[in-house]
Amino acid sequence: MKLRHPARRLAALALSLLLLLAFLPTAFAGGETVPAGEGQAPREGAVAQFGNTEYMKVQEAIDAAKTSGGTVHLLQDVEECITISTGSVTLDLSGHTLSAGNDPTAQAVIHVKGGTLTIEDTAGNGKVSTSDDKMKALRIEKDSVTLDSGTLLGKDGSGTLVSIEGSSASLTVKDGAIRSEAQRGDNSMGMVQISKGCTLNLDGGVLYSSFLHAIRNNGGGTVTMTGGSVTVDRQGAYALDNYGTAEISGGILTVQGGTAVHAVAEASGASVTTKLSGSVVCNGNIHVNGASNDGKTNIANLEISSGTINGSVNVESYSDVTLSGGTFAGGVEEIAETSQENEIRVTGGIYSQKPDDAYLADDALVIEADSQYYVGEDALTRISSAQSGETLEVVHGKEVTDVPAGVTVTNGTGDDITVDGETVAPGGSITIPVPEQPSEPSNPSFTEPQYYPDYDEDEDSLPPVDGEEPEEEQDLYMVTCRTLNVRLGGSTGYARIGTLSRGTILEGELENGWLKFAYNGQTAYCSADYLARVGGDLTDMHVTCRTLNVRAGAGTNFEILGTLSRGTEVEILDVLPGWYEIEYLGGEAYVSAAYIG
After folding, report:
1. Exposed, middle or buried, 297 (CB in 10 Å: 0-12/13-18/19+)?
2. Model's pTM, two decimal places?
3. How far apart (Å, rounded) are the C-alpha atoms in residues 562 and 442?
């Protein structure tokens, strides 16, 4: 066999390699790459990617993305300041850090002059970082930025980290963090600064500051907060320093041992309104103070309708304060001897210290129980939930109604009060009697009907009239008091999650004096002491006590027409709160629903 010359074999091999290269994907050419995550390392020196293209500058990728919209991914840690002026762009930090570059003219790592920017971090631990007090991590002059995830970080030497300063500019924090480790105590500086006409929306995420105010809302700005947390580590700085409008309905504001919310007006500044509601938790004090100078007075307004305030409400001067609800671990007080032109109204809430009488309307009801003071609607709710054997003290107000049976009410005021229509002198008390027990018939000619023999008093049901096994039916129960608390468990030690009104019909089962039932998609409990058993239906109903009064109306104040004995079948015509209208001697009469089953 004839052998091929070695030179010819080398030529054939070279030709084969050329053909192979010709068929390889064009992704190796120029600035092209396969999409991130498909196995190919980024081109050396590339710092960002948009689509399938890699870029040596983040700004180049941003400029390419803003015209069509889309996501720019960081490929590695990079020092560069970028600007966005139009369009809609998402910047995915992808676990990397974008930090300040060497541009002496730059004012922020990310400078938004217009357009819409979303910052996210799909890999975790991604940051936008600065350590220079003259350099911000984010500056927004116009339009909007959303922080979906990732961290805006200011290190030891940093100042204001985020500035929202242009016409109608806004920042929305959904998740992620804004964190300042600055070690400076400048009271005029906030980690997040908000200018007139601008908005900060906190739907979630974490804001943390070592020294600076976490949020400083300059005159005319707006802060809304529905979730997330804002924390400052030192006293003397505030979680929220508000010189504008703030509406906080959720989330947590924390400055342990200091002032968490500082609501202060300047004489020549914008009007100041601070509202706390919903599920907000404030770990720290609230300080409110208006201003007056050269004939100009600017009132600082504070409204709290619900939430938990683990601190005091301190009112200085020129303030209008309304507290209509919420739980307060501290007091409500004017903190300066020179306090002037304050309006403080306490109309509701639960307080660890009794509000000053000067802040309460003359007839405002205040109840002391559980070492707390319940005001207004909260007082009425506490009364309705009181258990037999409890003692409630009225410390302000003139009238108490709908007190449950077995509850004692004392008069801790300096004047007479009425309790369920009875007059109680100062220092006196009254115990509400238990409901009337059935008595002997008032009609001597009444003939006692046939009834079953006595059964165990603890039995929940009577044997069937015809001796057949009864069909199993879920019992129904009616609320007989004005307002009944709904709790997470079967005792007063469990949290209250709602209330029920008189006449409400419930379906459930009894457990140790409590009814277990479904409430707003969860298992809940209410006291059986304030329920009347209705039954699965209103047929085949019988008297369950030894002797039951029959009355001319639905109440114990109506005339007794006669009595029915245990086991007597009754025909129910109508259901009233705590009472049944029945057919009786050819007419209509009324019996207590508590003794029919």
Report:
1. middle
2. 0.68
3. 6
